[in-house]
Amino acid sequence: MLDGWAMQQRTRFLKAQTIQSRVDLVRRFAAFTKEYPWQWQAAEVEAFIDHLRSGQRPIVVSTARGYQNALRLFMEYVTDARYAWQQTCEEKFGQAPVQILHEWEHRRPRCRVRRRFPTRPAGL
After folding, report:
1. What pLDDT is stored for residue 43 in this prediction?
2. Phi, psi dihedrals of residue 38, rounded to the nearest 5°
3. Residue 107 CB-density burial (10 A; 0-12 exposed, 13-18 middle, 19+ buried)
4. DSSP at 36
5. Which parts of the chain register pLDDT below 50?
6. pLDDT at residue number 115
7. Gyration radius of the chain over CA positions
8. How far apart are alpha carbons 7 and 5 in whole angstroms?
9. pLDDT at residue 55, rounded to an integer
10. Which residue, among 43, 21, 17, has the nearest Cα to 32 in the 3D structure?
11. Could you tell me which of 74, 62, 96 has the C-alpha nearest to residue 28?
């Protein structure tokens, strides 16, 4: 799964460092849960992020959002029917991976600076 996801990212021209950090994060999450991607549930992502946000060196919100996004992208890959991971996992393990992170679940940062731009006269 990780090799295929890395290849997908390379064909989208992402930098090797970006790809490696995302793959490493998925491995960290798997080690945290002690489960395989087809067994993961949303509560485990919440526990993982909470763990990282509450330790001695808590991660900042922007890092947590980046982690959530990377995990969501991985789950999009393994749940995309074009790659057949759901079917393969269902056949081999009796359980298919599901998307555990959804875009609407994560608050987007608001613009801190509100600018008022002058309006142009109607004829311009």
Report:
1. 96
2. -75, -5
3. exposed
4. -
5. none
6. 55
7. 19
8. 5
9. 83
10. 43
11. 74
Q: How far is CA 111 from CA 52, 119, 120, in A?
A: 26, 20, 23
Pairs from 63-69 (Cβ < 8 Å, separation ≥ 24): 65/106, 65/109, 67/25, 68/101, 68/106, 69/106
Check: CB of residue 1 under 8 Å from CB of residue 22.
Answer: no
Specify burial of residue 69 (Cβ count, 10 A radius: 0-12, 13-18, 19+). Answer: middle
pLDDT at residue 117, as a whole number: 56
Q: What is the pLDDT of residue 102?
A: 83
Distance CA 19, CA 24 (A): 9
| CA angle in degrees (0–180, nearest 5) for 29-30-34 | 120
The pLDDT assigned to 104 comes to 60
Tell me the pLDDT tens digit for each residue of 100-121.
998 765 555 555 555 565 666 6
70-84 as b/e: b if 16+ CB within 10 A = bbbebbebbbeeebe
